[in-house]
Amino acid sequence: MSRVLIAHPGAAHFIYELVVAAVGLGHDTRFATGFYHDPKGGLARLVARLPSGLAAKLERELKRRSFPGLDPAIVDTDALLELAYVGSARIFRSRPALPERVMHWRNSTFDARIAARIRAAASAPEIVIGHDTSCLETLRAARERGALAVLNQMIGHLAIGDAILREEAERQPLWADSMHAGAPAWLIDQCRQEALTADRILSPSPYVSETLRQVGVPEERIRLQPFGVRVDRFRPAERPRGDGKIRLLYVGQISQRKGLAYLLEAMARLQRSDLELVLVGGIVGAGRGLEAYRPWFRHIPNVPHHEVADLFRSADLFVYPSLHEGSALALIEAMASGLPVITTLNSGTLARDGEDGVLVPIRAVDPLAEAITRLADDPTTRAAMAASARARALEFTWDHYRTRLVETLAR
User: What secondary structure, in 3-state letters, does the chain show?
Assistant: First the structure.
């Protein structure tokens, strides 16, 4: 097996899944990141001594930065970089331009430090996996040392996504501050260079693969590597709620990148008292685009990922009309939970139109309203799609992800 270095400056549980998969395949794996929490470490013991209310709150947050099966001993952290970004994001929440600049600084500094580490290593890694917006120098250093340089492209390419979001900011000015449209030209160029430098690119969905082709990546360098889902955790409800309503669920950032203005307009046009739309996630920007639609949705702020499964089991349909994604994990988690999905190709979905749910064009209010009406009014079709969605999700577990990774990482 190979010496593998996986580098990501922030945190996300699907990055942790990649690390655990590499370890499970027998690779000698190191994981470089900003911050990782050891539940048995000194920080955990310190938090446990705090007053119970504060301790519980901190433990809930720290749990986001730990993962079952990922040994803290293989993790190398650069905590000050991550602390600077997280602190700026919390303190300057109403001024997103500043945290964004700090994030760019964090990513570039992290990239430079990982590249220097690779160049200086007496025994360099044989496979290096970096992540888009934070790995150009890392990939170059990997190639200099003869390692396989792998880009894990988590979202559709920035050059394509930024064009979509710039247009959307003009179409939906009340939501403009939620989209971070107008990426700097240097960052778009950096992402293009990352994609063209990598020996191999992991793509989570056909949508991401298509955006890579559009920026000139040869087909043979792209490897489709769909994310997985924990089907034991995300599973259908044992019994219906029985409250007489059809509950539509959305889980993700409350941002127009997710196409929410079109979903809310569809709900407003339908004006059905038997439908309940629940939006789960943090509001990006000032949230001005939400105000006119307050009667048509209920909002639940951010919840940790380990608490999301119960929300899926409380719903009847999952709606995710995204404009630009990688492969939204919430979609496959909803499918594993036995929910038909209403979504777009741009969401990076694995759902099949007419089998596991309904695929609609982006920015399409009428097709969204029609799909909601169809599934709300036809319990037989809804039940058949729910069963099909669950069966489809069973084909995309993290064990399947690991199996696909064998070929992806073969030198």
Answer: CCEEEEECCCCCHHHHHHHHHHHHCCCEEEEEECCCCCCCCHHHHHHHCCCHHHHHHHHHHHHHHCCCCCCHHHEEECHHHHHHHHHHHHHCCCCCHHHHHHHHHHHHHHHHHHHHHHHHCCCCCCEEEEECCCCHHHHHHHHHCCCEEEEECCCCCHHHHHHHHHHHHHHCHHHHHHCCCCCCHHHHHHHHHHHHHCCEEEECCHHHHHHHHHCCCCHHHEEECCCCECCCCCCCCCCCCCCCCEEEEEECCECHHHCHHHHHHHHHHHCCCCEEEEEECCECCCCHHHHHHHHHCEEECCCCHHHHHHHHHCCCEEEECCCCCCCCHHHHHHHHCCCCEEECHHHCCCCCECCCEEECCCCCHHHHHHHHHHHHHCHHHHHHHHHHHHHHHCCCEHHHHHHHHHHHCCC
The model's pLDDT over 173-189, given as tens digits with 9 standing for 90+, comes to 999 999 989 999 999 99
Fold match between domain 3-229+398-408 and domain 246-393:
yes
Least confident of 160-164, 313-317, 403-407: 403-407
Taking 80 as the threshold, does the pLDDT of residue 93 lie above it?
A: no
* Geometric angle at alpha carbon 108, from 104 and 113, rounded to 5°: 150
Rounded to two decimals, what is the model's pTM?
0.91
d(CA 316, CA 237): 10
**CATH code of the region 3-229+398-408:** 3.40.50.2000
- Alpha-carbon gap, residue 327 to 341, rounded angstroms: 14
Measured on CA atoms in the order 92, 250, 313, 331, is the torsion positive or negative? negative
Q: Any idea where the domains of the chain sit in the sequence?
A: 3-229+398-408, 246-393
Distances (CA, A) of 134 to 131, 137, 351: 6, 8, 30
The pLDDT of residue 44: 62
Tell me which fold the domain 246-393 belongs to: Rossmann fold (3.40.50)
Compute the half-sphere exposure of residue 116: CA atoms within 13 Å on the CB side of its CA.
6
